[in-house]
Amino acid sequence: MTSRAFISGCSGLTLTEAERRFFSESQPWGFILFKRNCDNPDQIRHLTADLRAAVGFDAPILIDQEGGRVQRMAAPHWPAYPAARVFGEIYAIDQGRAHRAAYLGARLMAHDLRAVGIDVDCVPCLDVPVEGAHDVIGRRAYGLEPEVVAALGQSAADGLLAGGVLPVIKHIPGHGRAGVDSHLALPIVVTDREILSQVDFRPFRALRDLPLGMTAHVVYSAIDPDAPATLSAKVIHDVIRAEIGFDGCLMTDDLSMKALSGSVTEKARRAREAGVDLILHCNGEMDEMRELAEATPLLEGPALQRCERALARRRQPDVFDEASARAEFQQLTA
C-alpha cells in the first residue's frame, strides 16, 4: 500500500487501540516523537516498533534532538548535549575543533536515536539569527554568520548520516529574522530579497543536497506578502526549489502551530498546492489526525520520488567506539 503524504504524532508513551487502527488505515509516511512520547529506552523501543507494525513497513521515525533546550530524549537516561551555538563559539577560537565537536555531538546523538528505533533527526537548524529577532531560534543556531552556520551544519549532518540517521535542514528558507515565535503567531519579515539571498538563504544553498528539509512558517513580504513559506508557491518554487536548489523531500513545520490559520483541511490543502511533499502534524490529537488523513492524498509523482530518494539514504551506522567518542566530545566541549 502506498503511503499517505503526512507525518503523524501520537498521544503518549504507548499506542492506544484507536491509534493502531487509525495508522493502519491511513498509512502515514512517517511518525514524529516528542517529550510526551519519551520516558526510557525500553519504552521508546517498544513504541517505535509498534508504530512501524501499525503501518506494516519500515516507516521513518523523526524527533527534534538538537541539544540545548530542544532535546526530547533527556536525563536521566540520555546525556545533555550542548546547544548548537556552543560549536559556533568554539569555531571562533579553533575551527577544526569546532567541526570535530559538531560532528561527534551529532554522531553520538545518532547512536542514542538508533538504539531506540529513531532514524530521522530534525537537525541541523540552518537559521541565521539577527539582532532584535525573537529568541525562538537564538542559541539553536550555530552562529550569526551564514558561512559559520553552513559549515557547522554540514559537520552535524555528516555525523548523523554516519550514525545511520537522516538529517532535516530547517527552517527553510530561514527563520532567523522572525520577530515572534511561530508556535504562537505568524512572523512577518520585511527584509529585502537581496539581503535574504545573501544571508538567510546561503546555509540552505550550501546544504541543498541533504535528503530532507522543513519549511518555515514565516512570511517574507519581499517574495510573497500574502502567505508564509509553508503555504506559498512563490517561496517553494522560486526560492526553495529554484534559487536555493533544494530538490530533496520537503515537509512542513508542524501544521498545528498557531502561525497558520484555518482548519487542518485547509492548511494541508494549501501546503500541498504550494508544492510541499509531506504534511507534518505533531500534537497527537485524534480528531485533527483523522481530518488531516482525509485531506491528504497518497504520495505519487515527483513527491513520491523525492521521498523514496530520501529514504534510500538510510544506512547502517559506521563502526563506532561510543566510549572513546564520548570522552573526546567532552574534552572538545569543556
Report on the architecture of this protein:
This protein has one domain (4-333): Glycoside hydrolase, family 3, N-terminal domain (TIM Barrel, Alpha-Beta Barrel). The protein contains twelve helices and twelve strands. The chain has helices spanning 17-26, 41-55, 84-91, 95-114, 146-162, 193-200, 202-206, 233-243, 264-274, 286-295, 301-312, 322-333; strands at residues 4-8, 28-33, 61-63, 65-67, 70-71, 120-121, 166-172, 188-189, 212-215, 219-220, 249-251, 279-281. An eight-stranded parallel beta sheet has the order 11-9-7-6-3-2-1-12. The protein has a two-stranded antiparallel sheet with strand order 4-5. Strand 2 (28-33), helix 2 and strand 3 (61-63) form a beta-alpha-beta unit. The radius of gyration is 19 Å and the shape is globular. 52% of the residues are buried. The mean pLDDT is 97.
Could you tell me how far the N terminus lies from the C terminus, measured between alpha carbons in angstroms? Answer: 50 Å
Oligomer: single chain
Mean pLDDT, nearest integer?
97
Rg measurement, Å:
19 Å
**Architecture per CATH nomenclature, i.e. the level-2 architecture:** Alpha-Beta Barrel
Structural class: alpha/beta
The CATH superfamily title: Glycoside hydrolase, family 3, N-terminal domain
Q: Please give the share of residues in helix.
A: 40-55%
Strand content: 5-15%
The count of DSSP E runs of length 2 or more, i.e. the number of strands, is 12
Number of helices: 12
The name CATH uses for the topology is TIM Barrel
What's the helix-strand series? EHEHEEEHHEHEEHHEEHEHEHHH
Report the sheet with the most strands, covering strand number, pairing sense and barrel closure: 8 strands, parallel
Any idea of the CATH class?
Alpha Beta
How are strands sequenced across the largest beta sheet?
11-9-7-6-3-2-1-12
Low-confidence stretches: none
Please tell me the total number of domains. 1
Shape: globular
